[in-house]
Specification:
Blueprint: H1 2-31, H2 38-48, H3 51-60, H4 62-72, H5 83-90, H6 94-106, H7 111-127, E1 135-139, E2 147-150, E3 153-157, H8 178-182, H9 189-201, H10 212-230, H11 238-249, H12 255-260
Parallel strand pairs: 1-3
Antiparallel strand pairs: 2-3
Length: about 270
C-alpha cells in the first residue's frame, strides 16, 4: 500500500510539473518574438533575379511586399503588370546593391534581436496587459523609413541600422546629423520597434489646441514606456523625466491612462 501511495504521489508531482511547464510555455509564446527574414528572400530576388524568390515574396509575404513597394519605395502599385521589372530595376543601382550586401552581412544572425524583442515585449505586456503581439519582419529599403507599422505587422528596415560609422551614411547628400547617426545602430532596433509600435496604438492627439510642448510631451510619454520595456534608459529628455516624476507621484495611474491622456497633468490623482 505504501508503494502505491508513493507511486501516486510521484505521478501527481509529474503531472503538476508537466502542467506548469506547459503553462510556462504558453505564457512565453505570448511574448516570444522571432523576426521573420523577409529580407533574405527580397535580397535573393534583387541580387539574382530569382523568380522563385519573387513568388515567395508575393505568396508568403503579400502585405509586406505591398507595403515595401507602395509605401516605402513608392515605385508604383503592386498590381501593376510591370511592377516586378520596376522593383528589380530600382535596386540595380550600385549603391543599393552595396546596401543589400552590407545589411545581409551584418544581420546574418539576429538571435540577439529576437531575445531583446521577446524580453522587451514581455515587460511591455506587464505595463499594458491588453497589448497584442505584432508580427515582426526584416526588410531592406532605400534609406527611407526605419520601422514600418500597420495591420499587425512591424517591419524593420535593416538598411537604417548599419552603424553610425557606416561609410554610406557619411555622404554629404544624405545629410544625416550626429544625433541621427547615433540611433542608426543595431542597439536601437528594439527600442525603435517598441516606440513606433506604441505610437501606432497611441498616436499623437489630433488637437490643434495642443502646444508644441504638449505634442513633444506625448513622444516623451512613449519614450518613457520604451525605457521601462527595455529596462534601460535609451531616452533621457526633459519630457521623459517629467513623465517619470508624474508616474512616481501617481502610482495608481495606469500606463494606458497616461498614454491616452491628451495632457499629462489633466489626469486626476487617485
Amino acid at each position: 500500500m505504501g508503494r502505491c501511495y508513493a507511486l501516486l504521489f510521484l505521478l501527481m508531482f509529474a503531472c503538476i510539473g508537466c502542467e506548469w511547464r506547459l503553462r510556462l510555455t504558453d505564457d512565453q509564446s505570448e511574448t516570444e518574438i522571432a523576426v521573420e527574414r523577409y529580407d533574405r528572400i527580397q535580397s535573393l530576388y534583387l541580387t539574382t533575379g530569382d523568380f522563385s524568390a519573387l513568388q515567395q515574396m508575393n505568396i508568403n509575404y503579400p502585405q509586406q511586399t505591398r507595403t515595401l513597394i507602395e509605401d516605402v519605395l513608392c515605385i508604383g502599385h503592386v498590381n501593376d503588370p510591370e511592377i516586378n521589372v520596376k522593383f528589380l530595376s530600382f535596386f540595380q543601382d550600385t549603391t543599393l546593391q552595396a546596401l543589400i550586401a552590407s545589411a545581409e552581412q551584418q544581420y546574418a544572425n539576429m538571435d540577439d534581436i529576437n531575445q531583446q524583442l521577446s524580453e522587451a515585449f514581455q515587460r511591455l505586456r506587464e505595463l499594458l496587459p491588453q497589448i497584442e503581439k505584432p508580427v515582426v519582419y526584416a526588410q531592406i529599403g532605400s534609406l527611407d523609413q526605419s520601422v514600418i507599422v500597420g495591420n499587425g505587422l512591424l517591419g524593420i528596415s535593416l538598411d537604417k541600422y548599419l552603424g553610425s560609422d557606416f561609410p554610406l551614411y557619411q555622404r554629404e547628400e544624405y545629410g544625416y546629423t550626429d544625433e541621427q547617426l547615433k540611433v542608426m545602430t543595431r542597439q536601437y532596433i528594439v527600442p525603435d520597434c517598441i516606440g513606433f509600435y506604441l505610437l501606432s496604438l497611441y498616436p499623437i492627439p489630433n488637437d490643434s489646441k495642443l502646444s508644441r510642448f504638449e505634442t513633444d510631451m506625448h513622444i516623451g510619454k512613449v519614450q518613457w514606456v520604451v525605457n521601462q520595456a527595455m529596462n534601460k534608459t535609451f531616452f533621457n529628455t526633459l519630457y521623459t523625466r517629467n513623465v517619470g516624476y508624474f508616474m512616481k507621484k501617481n502610482p495608481n495611474i495606469t500606463v494606458d491612462e497616461m498614454l491616452r491622456s491628451k495632457r499629462l497633468y489633466d489626469l486626476p490623482s487617485k
